Amino acid sequence: MNDRPNYITPAGLRALRERYDQLFAIERPKLVETISWAAGNGDRSENGDYIYGRKKLREIDRELGFLSRRMKAAKVIDPAAQADRDRVWFGATVTLVDEDDKERIVTLIGEDEADAGQGRISWRSPFARALKGAAVGDMRSVQLPAGPKEWEVLAISYPPAG
């Protein structure tokens, strides 16, 4: 794949592990059972349960392999342990305002946890890269498909230290 570390929050790694366990311990064994049953029903070339089951099993095995590689490459970073809380780093939740006084709140997290609709953006995204190291009051220009846009950092927060 690549040799860049896969930074992830503890919650993100937990979610990957839960998905892996769900597939490996529950979904895959059920599917194998269905395939075995379907295989026992005679002609496999026209057996929909068998054909679909095998296809679905390949998809699950591919996802298990992907999840396994992502977890192996994971470097867990706990945002609550961030020492420099005055600047934007991995795990920061940042409140921004644009030229039109529209506020936006984003959290910089790992690629496997990103959900732009929820304001959870990959720390490798162009938007996050523009924000890294910023302090409250700093202006950052982000190149968007519609052109550059200026954002001011209004607030930076991290989860409370454990």
Explain what the structure shows.
The chain folds into two domains: 6-76, Transcription elongation factor, GreA/GreB, N-terminal domain (Helix Hairpins, Orthogonal Bundle), CATH 1.10.287.180; 87-157, Chitinase A, domain 3. Helix content is 38%, strand content 24%. The chain is built from three helices and seven strands. The strands form two sheets. It has a five-stranded mixed β-sheet. Strand 6 and strand 7 form a beta hairpin. Helix 1 packs antiparallel against helix 2. The two termini are 34 Å apart. The model has no long low-confidence stretch (mean pLDDT 92).
Radius of gyration: 22 Å
Residue stretches low in confidence (pLDDT < 50, at least 5 long) are none
CATH class of the largest domain: Mainly Alpha
What is the total number of structural domains?
2
Overall pLDDT level: 92
The sequence of SSEs as H and E is EHHEEEEHEE
Write the layout of secondary structure elements.
Layout: E1 6-8, H1 10-39, H2 48-73, E2 74-76, E3 93-98, E4 103-109, E5 120-122, H3 126-131, E6 139-144, E7 147-157
Parallel strand pairs: 1-2, 4-5
Antiparallel strand pairs: 3-4, 3-7, 6-7
Helix pairs in contact: 1-2
